[in-house]
């Protein structure tokens, strides 16, 4: 019997410059998602929650547009499993571009490319991963993109590993 240990994400040692990661999850944005995020962030632009007012917006074709903060947060979240699940720090974001509107009912996907790797000069056992991430809607339109750098441990540090508790009753076995 093989035990597949609890482990998610990549460590610095796993990244290769030029590798593209098509992140596995997609997420459809509901009206509740958009409204809650808008209210949570105190964004008072009614184009995010007032259908009547949104009808006068020439950019959106009269539809409610999803709060761009939600778009960025969602694409970031979709990328975490591959790019920063084990990161210990976000170090910087650059060149965020919102290139296509997002509407209620759109399904969002994300992909990233590793563009640079370097050893941390201040923290032995860690490295800096730089990536470009972009979000796509269900039609393949690029909706947002950015460059981001994160600090990620190497496997040798043990960080993010062997955290699953050992059962007091012993290993799991077939009944």
UniProtKB/TrEMBL annotation:
- The signal peptide here is none
Q: Which domain of life is it from?
A: Bacteria
Q: Which Gene3D superfamilies match?
A: Hotdog Thioesterase (3.10.129.10)
An example Pfam family from this entry, by short name, is: MC_hydratase
Q: What is this protein called?
A: MaoC family dehydratase
